[in-house]
Amino acid sequence: AFEQVARAADIPIYAVMAAFREDPSPMKLNLGFGVYRTEEGKPLLLNAVRQAEQLLVNDLSADKEYLPITGLPEFNKLSAKLIFGADSPAIKENRVSTVQCLSGSGSLRIGADFLAKHYYQHTVYLSQPTYGNHPNFFAAAGLAMKTYHYYDPKTNGLDFQGMLQDLGAAASGAIVLLQASGHNPTGIDPTAQQWEQIRQLMRLKRLLPFFDCAYQGFVMNMDADALPVRMFVADGGECLVAQSYSKTMGLYGERVGALSVVCKTTDVASRVESQLKLLIRPMYSNPPIHGASIVTAILKDRYIHGVYILSALQDGREMYSRWVTELKQLTDRIATLRQQLHLALLDRGTPGDWSHITRQVGMFSLTGLNAEQVAFLIKEYHIYMSPDGRINMAGLSSKAVPYLADAIHAAVTL
Ligand code: PLP
């Protein structure tokens, strides 16, 4: 029955990872997949997550019943507060529909399917470049894709004028996928002033923002990283938001995230939610409970009887602040690695301006290395990265910096 099935091409980043696994070299370095690694190159389980899991294990009233189609209600409320702000008018006015989805990916896909079925415009604009899986979600939903300028290879910075021009030329109502902070793969985010210009232009042109928030807290802090989303919500307009806890809580394999649709009225939000249920029910029926329970335990530690606690250390409810502190340690370490790599390249007199490595933010750096140089790094130095020259800074360690700098130096002076 299946003899005619053609072999699909390997998914590029998975092919890089497979090559890494098979490489016997003791020097090998994995800067491909976007996952956090310790200085020893090991995965990290956050103490806040460990503590939350312990609570769950000890909670004798807990069960493993099915969740509702839209997930754990408390998780949805807390996720919305995390991204929109605890006193967001849109939440207070009950016009946000938030549903627990299978992490950022599942949220993007459900959002894409929702738009394909219920929104009149079927073109989505993606940044050039963007996260490798983005086009797949929208293609699978049957939406047409276009790109907007984003990365300027000349400056290794933002091509802001190009971005505004492309958005200005988009058809009215087109969907625009935006990354709220820690842009993957470029590590370049617009400034607050630039976001304000983007917002004004998009609202003028009635473009629909779809925010992907996979790195909230990975750049500055929970609130600052949510700023672009909050700017678009503060003007009373609509938007979609996909949240992921993969990177921010290190819950990659738990597949925990949320899709929010900000609407103009409570009635619309409740109709939207009814349609989201119809999309989810035939797909996986309802989401998994464990990851969402961990996130809920951590996020709700921020509130006592529903009141936001400024000093989350009160009353022994420290999981939220422990999480934020741990996340800060991770991001500080990544910033240090950026500085170390930049200095190591300066020390070697490596041709080119490498200051973008420290200017870029979040987990990734688009190094500017071309495909040939990347292939050289893999072959000669066993350093693996995605073919576009993106490195996962969180996969680097201080002790590997000199080796990586030697390799980059060799690649660009070939
Ligand atoms: N969005 C961006 C920008 C990402 O970088 C990623 C993962 O790398 C995702 C979404 C999806 O991740 P997940 O499905 O694990 O939340």
Characterization of this structure:
With 414 residues, the protein is α/β, with parallel strands linked by helices. It folds into two domains: 12-44 and 322-412, Aspartate Aminotransferase, domain 1, CATH 3.90.1150.10; 66-288, Aspartate Aminotransferase, domain 2. Helix content is 42%, strand content 15%. The protein has 15 helices and 15 strands. The protein has helices at residues 12-22, 47-58, 73-84, 89-92, 103-118, 134-140, 160-168, 192-204, 227-234, 266-280, 290-300, 319-348, 356-359, 371-381, 401-412; strands at residues 29-30, 96-102, 123-128, 144-149, 151-152, 157-158, 175-179, 208-213, 239-244, 256-262, 303-304, 307-308, 364-366, 383-384, 390-392. The chain has a seven-stranded mixed sheet with strand order 2-10-9-8-7-3-4, with helices on both faces. A two-stranded parallel sheet has the order 1-14. Strands 5-6 form a two-stranded antiparallel ribbon. Helix 8 (192-204) links the parallel strand 7 (175-179) and strand 8. Helix 8 (192-204) runs parallel beside helix 9 and helix 12 (319-348) packs across helix 15. The radius of gyration is 22 Å and the shape is globular. The protein starts with 11 loop residues before the first helix and ends with a helix. The relative contact order is 0.17. Pyridoxal-5'-phosphate is lined by residues 34, 103-105, 131, 179, 184, 212, 214, 244, 246, 252, 257.
